[in-house]
Amino acid sequence: MATIWIIVIYLGALLAFAMGSKIFFRGTSADYFVASRSIGPFMLLMSVFGTTMTAFALVGSTGKSFERGIGTYGLMASSSGLIHAACFLLIGLKLWAIGKRHGYVTQIQFFRARFDSNGLGYLLFPILVLLVIPYLLIGVIGAAKTIGGVTGPKKTPRGMIEGTFPDLFESTGGAIPPWLTGAVICIVVLCYIFAGGSRAAAWANTFQTLVFMTMGVLAFILISNKLGGLGAAIEQAKEGHLVRTVSSEGKVGVPPIMFATYMFIPLSVGMFPHLFQHWLTAKSAKAFKLTVIAHPICIMIVWVPCVLIGLWATGLKPLEGAAPAAVLAKMVGILVKDPVIVGLVTAGILAAIMSSLDSQFLCLGTIFTNDIVLHNTKKKYTDKQILLMARGFVLAIVVITYVLAMVLIDQNVFDLAIWCFSGFAALTPLVIAALYWRRSTKEGAIASIVATTVVWFYFFAKSGFGGEYVILGGVMPVAVCWLTGVVAMVAVSLATKPPSKETVDKFFP
Amino acid sequence: MKRTSLVFLTVFVLLAILHQDFWNWDNASLVFGFMPMGLAYHALYTLVATAFWAVVIKVAWPTKLEEWAEGGEE
After folding, report:
1. Which residues from B are below 8 Å from A286, CB to CB?
2. What does the alpha-carbon distance between residue A215 and residue A202 come to, in Å, rounded to a whole number?
3. A240-259 CB burial, b ≥16 within 10 A, e <16
4. Looking at chain B from residue 39 to 68, which residues have their Cβ under 8 Å from any Cβ of chain A?
5. In angstroms, rounded to a whole number, what is the distance separating the alpha carbons of residues B51 and A178?
6. pLDDT of B72
7. What is the distance in angstroms between the Cα of B56 and the nearest Cα belonging to chain A?
8. Residue A116 to chain B, least CA–CA distance (Å)
9. Inter-chain contact A284–B66, Cβ cutoff 8 Å?
10. Domains of chain A (ranges, CATH numbers)
């Protein structure tokens, strides 16, 4: 029961902290969508880092390291240190400047104006929404499974221990059922996003990021102590997991070509619509400095301990055959045992999940309001009406996400995440050309989006709609999708009429 | 392209190449007695990337872009 109380206290504290931002809420749509562009360096770093780190940050990194070994850190973390910072500085900062100068609050507003095309917005809108939705589902399903695992019945050497609430939830063996966890998570996030929009998301993300970073380090220290210290802990690891050489069955290790082409995936942050919205909340360009420099270090603080925990787990008997997603929870549950610590680490996992969910809910509400409704009407809406509309859309998206998550609760949607990242990463030639190539044209942009989407969908279908899939002995499909986008953009732009001088002057200072 | 931009682009490409540390692929030795070499290298790599971006920000911060943004239409 102590575990549940810790989680309840965490959710209450999160809600109180996020709702505290309401004191600064100015009641305008600009405040709701982009916090009146008033977020300072530390909160920008925390909200950007919290948004980019999903359930993968704690659970996925440990699980992947348990599965594939040390290569996990290079695949997903150190490459992000280089590429994410590049995206924040070269894409985020410039988009912030353009957004501030011309008053944009969504990506689609920018692309429509830059390429002087309404159609481009309608083409991009469903693609962005369809790529964000699986990402949302991962969050809700991940939270439901984490809480289900913590409160469910457990197999121990002394026999089965029943779940936390055997009388209340008989059908799940005493575990809190997914419908209840999903509902609580969605309601908590909905409450603060509904009330405070972007500012509440920034405040909540700051709180959540501090929680999940602290809990990751806490789990690391406690587990290593239980294993007899760092030196003794690493002795538990299977040797094959300490290198990147691919094992004979191909399940451990990373092929060099996969390692190299995986570097395209962190480019996805350049096209995440929810990150775009966070960039626009920055008070000044200088606010980006801390994010660019400290983001790689924050990644290291979270990922190195988690990768090591995953390695240690490979040689532990009770973890044999464990599902990768359950490794962190099992290591804490089996080795540390203390229900308070289990509660704290679970709160950390929920924090990592929810710090992405809130921004995604808000961004979908923002793009529905601005890019579909307001864009298509000549009617003048008051700020109050716009706020009402945005909140209505956020509510609808939360309800749809919840229903979809419950329908798909038993599906393995975690593999979908890499496909979502690949989709966003493959679209980055669009934003790079829009920002840095004056000669890029509307036709080139449309060709790039269409070509990328077709190639991405082809690979996605070949993977069985979401499985692990590589081509040519290890090349990640994202590399091919990205290059297709570049070729289409360049070839079609050069073959079509250049943009007007007025458009170029507007976007190239 | 300005000389500084070219230097930074070259270092960026070099860092991308250094990320593919093929020489560590099958090195199972431990650094400080607990950190596998392949992991220690990439942790250090993260710090080098951080230092690189700190230098970029110090030397090539786009001051004019900030001024341009402030003179907006909002």
Report:
1. 66
2. 20
3. bbbbbbbeeeeebbbbebbb
4. 39, 42-43, 45-47, 49-50, 52-54, 56-57, 61-62, 64-66, 68
5. 44
6. 60
7. 10
8. 18
9. yes
10. 2-507 (1.20.1730.10)
Distance from the Cα of A86 to chain B's closest Cα (Å) equals: 8
Domain count, chain B: 1
A17-28 burial, b at 16+ Cβ within 10 Å, e below that, comes to bbbebeeebeee
- Residues A105 and A367: beta-carbon distance below 8 Å: no
Residue A81 burial (C-beta neighbours within 10 Å; 0-12, 13-18, 19+): buried
CA angle A386, A388, A394 (to 5 degrees): 105
From A293, A366, A283, A229, select the one nearest A49 (Cα to Cα): A293
- Give A43→chain B minimum CA distance, Å: 19
Cα–Cα dist A198/A131, whole Å: 21
A289: closest CA among A89, A84, A91?
A89
Give whole-number Cα distances, A506 to A25, A98, A114, A407, in Å.
Answer: 31, 9, 8, 47
Q: Are the C-beta atoms of A361 and A201 separated by less than 8 Å? A: no
Cβ neighbors of A137 (< 8 A, separation 6 or more) are: A401, A404, A405, A408, A413, A416
Cβ atoms of residues A495 and A487 within 8 Å: no
| B2 shares contact with chain A (CB less than 8 Å) | no
Minimal Cα distance from B60: which residue of A? A89
Residues of B in Cβ contact (< 8 Å) with A244: 24-26, 38
**pLDDT tens digits, residue range A217-258?**
988 999 999 899 999 999 999 999 999 999 888 789 999 999
Domain region containing B46: 3-70
Query: Do A213 and A352 form a contact (C-beta atoms < 8 A)?
Result: no
Name every residue whose Cβ is closer than 8 Å to that of residue A162 and which is 6 or more positions away in sequence.
Answer: A153, A173, A174
Backbone phi, psi, residue A507, to 5°: -110, -10
pLDDT band at A149, cuts 50/70/90?
confident
Q: How do residues B23-49 score in pLDDT, each as one tens digit? A: 999 999 999 999 999 999 999 999 999
Q: Kindly determine whether residue B42 and residue A100, on different chains, have CB atoms separated by under 8 Å.
A: no
Considering only CA atoms, give the Rg of chain A: 23
Choose among A449, A448, A455: nearest CA to A475: A455
Query: What residues contact A319, with CB distance under 8 A and at least 6 apart?
Result: A66, A313, A327, A330, A331, A334
> Nearest CB to A234: which of B30, B65, B73?
B30
Q: Which residues pair with A159 in a beta bridge?
A: A156
